[in-house]
Design a protein that fits this description.
It is built from 13 helices and seven strands. The chain has a five-stranded mixed beta sheet, with helices on both faces. A two-stranded antiparallel ribbon has the order 1-2. The N terminus is likely disordered. Helix 3 crosses helix 13, helix 6 runs antiparallel to helix 7 and helix 11 crosses helix 12. The chain has a domain of about 70 residues. The protein is α/β, with parallel strands linked by helices. A hairpin with a 2-residue loop joins strand 1 and strand 2.
């Protein structure tokens, strides 16, 4: 386990702050972002021979989670909204790398409120990688997401959009040669993309688009019928080739005599509204990422800590833990800790 991931030598000279050694506090906070408070206390005892109760681990996460929150808020305020001229910020050096952002949501349980959505943003570099063609077995060069970092928000879209923009800006978004936004078809995501990433390539996640196409096929021809599979295979090829608008028209025409025509028309609207974000073949040729698996994987990792069996969070507690978890999953826990530890206490 690397130092960046959170383990530190226990025999070094330790500073003391607030009655806790820096190293013990740091370990307690890092572990609290990985496992339950109870398990974190057990690991400290089992691995480090450090006696630390569940309550102490919780207190440390609350204290230092607030400091991590303050860092995120400061970054959000400093980021603002930059108006680009010809895609370049004056005074910045343009780089050759390409970057992307994806957004999604996951549910956690908040005491006295019920299940609430945590909005999750993933910022990544777009790099070329290899994938096997399932039909020919040949190696294909495709765009892949690398070096993912995260921003989260428990609440409305706009503050979340500001946080994602702050994360992207810190990563060097305004210096990137070109950028993209990849996500499902949720309207709130594309509204944020228009507000904060308006000059970026946009693409609807290929797998979400296929799910909508499959749903239309089932309604038109019956679930798992030969006609359904034939129609789906034909239209999936057309969709990949960039003919989403034509598919929308086809669904609308074939929906006329169907009992579920209103639902089919909604599916047609999905393809018509997003057709300019569904030119998958061209996007693949240009080396862009066409799937949002990176943010969906991130959402699962956040939920693993915050939506486990029987977990019920206070709103403030969840917000602090989201900051700690973001720092860990973004591989910058050490950096965030160092800044927090040497900053005035809140």
């Amino acid at each position: 386990m690397s130092a960046e991931q959170g383990f530190f030598p226990l025999d070094q000279q330790l500073k003391v702050k607030g009655g806790q050694s820096e190293n013990v506090s740091r370990l307690a906070v890092w572990l609290s972002g990985m496992v339950s408070f109870e398990r974190a206390a057990e690991i400290l005892e089992e691995v480090g021979r450090i006696t630390c109760s569940r309550g102490t681990v919780w207190e440390q996460s609350q204290e230092w989670g607030a400091q991590f929150q303050a860092q995120e808020e400061q970054a959000r305020k400093q980021a603002g909204r930059i108006d680009l001229k010809n895609g370049v910020v004056p005074g910045e050096t343009q780089e050759t790398r390409r970057m992307g952002v994806s957004m999604d949501g996951g549910m956690i349980h908040i005491r006295e409120e019920g299940w609430k959505e945590v909005k999750i943003g993933c910022v990544f570099d777009v790099e070329m990688g290899k994938e096997k063609d399932v039909q020919t077995g040949d190696d294909l060069e495709i765009g892949c997401a690398a070096n993912q970092t995260y921003a989260t928000h428990l609440g409305e879209p706009e503050p979340f959009g500001q946080k994602v923009w702050a994360e992207a800006k810190q990563r060097g978004w305004t210096r990137a040669a070109d950028t993209q936004v990849v996500a499902d078809g949720a309207v709130w995501i594309w509204n944020l993309a228009q507000d904060h990433f308006y000059d970026s390539q946009q693409v609807v996640d290929w797998y979400h688009a296929k799910q909508h196409l499959c749903h239309a096929a089932e309604m038109l021809h019956g679930e798992e019928s030969p006609g359904m599979h034939k129609w789906l295979n034909e239209q999936e090829t057309r969709l990949f080739q960039g003919h989403a608008d034509e598919i929308a028209g086809l669904i609308e025409r074939q929906a006329q005599d169907k009992p579920c025509k209103d639902e089919l028309k909604r599916e047609a609207g999905y393809f018509r509204h997003n057709h300019h974000r569904m030119d998958y073949l061209e996007m693949r040729i240009q080396g862009w990422v066409i799937g949002s698996g990176m943010v969906e994987s991130g959402a699962k990792q956040f939920k693993a800590r915050l939506a486990g069996p029987g977990m019920h969070w206070s709103r403030k507690g969840a917000e602090k833990m989201l900051c700690i978890r973001s720092a860990i999953l973004s591989n910058r826990f050490n950096q965030s800790w160092h800044t927090a530890y040497h900053s005035p206490q809140i």
